[in-house]
Amino acid sequence: MDGSDDRQEPESFIKNSQLLTELFGYWPDFHDAEILTLTLSVGCAQPWIPGCESPIMDMRVRLCDWNGKTANTLIEMQFTRVQKIELSNFSYQNSESEVVFELQSRQFPDGRGGLSVPFDFICMEIFANCGVAGSLECEAVEVISASICSGVGSGNST
């Protein structure tokens, strides 16, 4: 990730991002978030279309935002058409200092001396306090749910 100042905000390219921005009042940086599960599978977004199978990653995160109202929030996200993934140090505790989402564009040589039509993809980078760190590139990210929890693993969906 290049860290340029002209980056788009994640809520402009992550589907259902309003589930988080309405809950917190902003897009969280996932500081002190704990990644509870990462599940890789081959599947399809719904509705199913023949030949649409692609790599999918589901991520479940507990976010401790410490602002009182949303101090313990369970978030589920899905990443579709995962193209590149690098993860290390998944452990019994996966506390993050930050999770960064960035929209990027790429072109490839077209075989005729030119370049292909640009296509957009999403990069996610996980910066760890301890436990899992890594990065991935995918075609789409969706917030599936966000629940304020009264205890570990319980919550009311919003």
- Strands of the largest sheet, in order across it? 1-2-3-8-9
The number of helical elements comes to 1
Structural class: mainly beta
H-E order: HEEEEEEEEE
Task: State the separation between the terminal residues, measured CA to CA.
Answer: 31 Å
Coarse morphology: globular
List segments where confidence is low: pLDDT < 50 over at least 5 consecutive residues.
Answer: 152-158
Q: State which percent range the strand residues make up.
A: over 45%
Kindly report the average pLDDT value.
Answer: 85
Q: How would a crystallographer describe the biggest sheet?
A: 5 strands, antiparallel
Number of separate strands: 9
Q: Helical proportion? A: under 10%
Radius of gyration: 17 Å
Topology:
Layout lengths: L17 H7 L9 E10 L10 E10 L9 E8 L3 E5 L6 E12 L12 E12 L2 E6 L1 E9 L7 E2 L1
Antiparallel strand pairs: 1-2, 2-3, 3-8, 4-7, 5-6, 6-7, 8-9
Would you write up a description of this structure?
There is one protein chain. The protein has 158 residues and is mainly beta. Helices cover 4% and strands 47% of the residues. It is built from one helix and nine strands. The strands form two sheets. A five-stranded antiparallel β-sheet has the order 1-2-3-8-9, with helices on one face. The chain has a four-stranded antiparallel β-sheet with strand order 4-7-6-5, with no helix packed on it. The longest helix is centred in the first third of the chain and has 7 residues, at 18-24.
